[in-house]
Amino acid sequence: MKAALITGITGQDGSYMAELLLTKGYRVIGAVRDMQNAKETLPTALMQRVELVVWDMLDQCRMAEILAEYRLTEIYNLAAYSSGTGMFNDAVDIGEVNGLAVARILDAIRTVDANIRFCQASSSEMFGNALESPQLEATPFRPRTPYGAAKLYAHSMIQIYRQHYGLYGCSAILFNHESPRRGLGFVTRKITHAVAKIKLGLVNELCLGNLDARRDWGFAGDYVRAMWLMLQHPDADDYVVATGETHSVRELCEIAFGHFNLDYRDYVREDSASYRPIESIQLVGNSKKARNQLGWIPEIGFHEMVSRMVDADLRKLIEQPGATKIGVS
Ligand code: NAP
Fold first, then answer.
1. Is 123 one of the annotated active-site residues of the chain?
2. Catalytic residue, candidates 19, 125, 178, 251
3. 221 vs 12: CA distance, rounded Å
4. Could you identify which of 4, 132, 150, 162 might form a hypothetical disulfide with 99, taking C-beta atoms 3.0 to 4.6 angstroms apart as the criterion?
5. Catalytic residue list contains 15
């Protein structure tokens, strides 16, 4: 039986990854920083099927103990500071968790069991102020935030440990991916949550930044499948994981509001305080390598993903006591 460790199991990707690995018959161990929070966050059905272990990402000795104790075959490092607006906050902590922690895991693998396969959730933010579009594995990295810089350090360490020590480490260069489990701090979920509230008559306005900003948005379930496929390949490598299409915030609003036959123009206000100019070069990924070498194909399109998110937000709000159920159909 394969055994996989997932860091960040309480997050969006962590929970999808745990579900995927369980369907494939893995023993799944989640490394968490706070056991109580994890028990409260993880859905009961998942809690009953995974094992949890506490790991402080600054503690390298403990990582080595965990590797030795659980006899792991794969590690998915999905824990990170990942706030949409907080990429400049806590630069030192971000460096520790998003960057140095990866060196700790790699070094523990090297010393305890060099056969363990490792996958890192890297980010399109490493491309930052990219000079070319779309971006692919060979595109030069130009991070513009502490988040992107820390992810790039981790990405580089994976390449170094692969080349120097022959470790099996993969870096998944993930473009934005969303789902009903996305944090409320991200624009996609901010919109779908607000749409559900508007449908219920709980609010009647949504303030957003630049509606013409465009992103390459995929579905989180598809992206964790890409990471799993990476570790099943005979050779370790790095892959861009992206849809290759961009959509504007305005299109997102049209779909989300339109799902309930509402017109976004009646509710959305562009807020100059959070207005950011459109980048001259868009972040949009070319995932040809993942598609050709791993056979990865995203299954959930943008429209369906947004619809699922709105429906899930509506369900959650209705289940919450006190939500006004005006207009639910
Ligand atoms: P998420 O929902 O925000 O989950 C983040 C996870 O990291 C949570 O489990 C959180 O645990 C854990 N974490 C945060 N700070 C930590 C710390 N100091 N010590 C230990 N654990 C910590 O993020 P996600 O969307 O699933 O993203 C998963 C990974 O993909 C991240 O590495 C992210 O940087 C990367 N990524 C995501 C996207 C995207 O669009 N989603 C794009 C590119 C890359 P708690 O429950 O304890 O807070």
1. yes
2. 125
3. 9
4. 150
5. no
Query: Has this prediction a pTM greater than 0.85?
Result: yes
Q: Ligand 1 atom 40: the closest Cα is on which residue? A: 176
Range 187-215+245-283+302-320 classified under CATH 3.30.950.10: no
Residues whose CB is less than 8 angstroms from the CB of residue 329 and which lie 6 or more positions away in sequence, other chains included:
none
Instruction: Give the rounded percent of residues in the chain with a pLDDT score beyond 70.
Output: 94
Residue 83, number of CB atoms within 10 A of its CB: 15
**Tens-digit pLDDT profile for residues 201-217:** 999 999 999 999 999 99
Domain ranges (residues) in the chain: 3-178+217-241, 187-215+245-283+302-320
Spatial distance between the Cα atoms of 102 and 107, rounded to a whole number of angstroms: 8
Q: Which ligand 1 atom sits closest to the C-alpha of 33?
A: 20
pLDDT at 325 over 60: no
Residue 15 has pLDDT above 90, yes or no: yes
- Output the CA–CA distances (angstroms, integers) from residue 184 to 35, 161, 194, 220, 318, in the order listed: 22, 36, 10, 15, 17
> Does the Cβ of 148 fall within 6 Å of ligand 1?
no
Atom from ligand 1 closest to the CA of residue 55 = 20
Pocket probe mutation, ligand 1, options 9, 13, 58, 119, max atoms within 8 Å of Cβ:
13
Cis peptide upstream of residue 134 (ω within 30 degrees of 0): yes
Q: Kindly state if the Cβ of 183 falls inside 6 Å of ligand 1.
A: yes
Q: What is the pLDDT of residue 88?
A: 78
Would you call 147 a catalytic residue per the annotation? yes
Per mean pLDDT, which range of 86-90, 226-230, 274-278 is the poorest?
274-278
CATH of 3-178+217-241, one of 1.10.238.10, 3.40.50.300, 3.40.50.1370, 3.40.50.720: 3.40.50.720
> Does position 278 have pLDDT exceeding 60, yes or no?
yes
* Distances, alpha carbon 213 to alpha carbons 27, 76, 130, 283, in Å: 41, 31, 16, 11
Output the pLDDT for position 89. Answer: 78
**Which of these is catalytic: 122, 123, 124, 179?**
123
Residues linked to residue 178 through DSSP beta bridges, in sequence order? 219
Average pLDDT of the residues in 125-146: 96
